[in-house]
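=== Structure Prediction Worksheet ===
Name of assembly: unnamed complex
Input type: mixed (protein and possibly other molecules)
Chain count: two
Listed entries:
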Amino acid sequence: AAGVIQSPRHLIKEKRETATLKCYPIPRHDTVYWYQQGPGQDPQFLISFYEKMQSDKGSIPDRFSAQQFSDYHSELNMSSLELGDSALYFCASSRGGDEQFFGPGTRLTVL
Amino acid sequence: AQKITQTQPGMFVQEKEAVTLDCTYDTSDPSYGLFWYKQPSSGEMIFLIYQGSYDQQNATEGRYSLNFQKARKSANLVISASQLGDSAMYFCAMREGPDSGNTPLVFGKGTRLSVIA
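=== Predicted Assembly ===
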C-alpha cells in the first residue's frame, strides 16, 4: 500500500539559511498535516491543509510557511533557520477524520 | 492544562508478557478520537489503534487492545504477548471533534517501553 512520502529524509543547514521540506500524501487523502518533533519531545502540530486550503494552524513560527499544490503535495518552507529548529518534521495525511498516517519524517539539523 | 497525560515515562516488560500503557485525556468536546502510535528508534510514527468517543466496544488490533473507560477519561493501551520488537516509544494522541472532522492530533509525552528477553 502507498504511504506518505517525505523528502529529503535528512537535511543539514547553517543558521539563517532556508529549507524546503516536501510531502506527498497517500492518494485520495484530502488532508495534510505538518508536525515538528524536537529531540526527546512529543510531536507538535504546525499547520494543516484540507483540499489545498489551509485548515488549522498550530505553533508554526512566522519564519515558516506552507502550502498545498494542485497535485496535493505539500511543502514546508523554513527561513532564517535557528538552532532550535533542529527537529524531526513529520507530514501526515488522512481522509477526513480517519487515522492520520505519518511519513518517515525529515530530520533537520541546523548548525 | 495538559490534554493528554501519559504518567509512565518508561516501562519494562518481560518478553511474552502483557503490558498496559496508561493514557488519560481531558476534553469537553463530546466527540473525539483517541489514537496510539509507536515510534521505534528509527523515528517513524506507526499507527496502532483508534477509539472513537461513541464506540461502544473497546478497539482491538491483533496484539493491541485499547481499554477505554470514558467516565474516567482513560484510554490505556494493552499489548499482549510482548515481543522484543515492541521496544519503542509509545504516544497516545487525541483528535477533538466529530469523526468526519480533520482536526490535528494532540500528543502525550510518550512512554518508552523496553521488552526484556
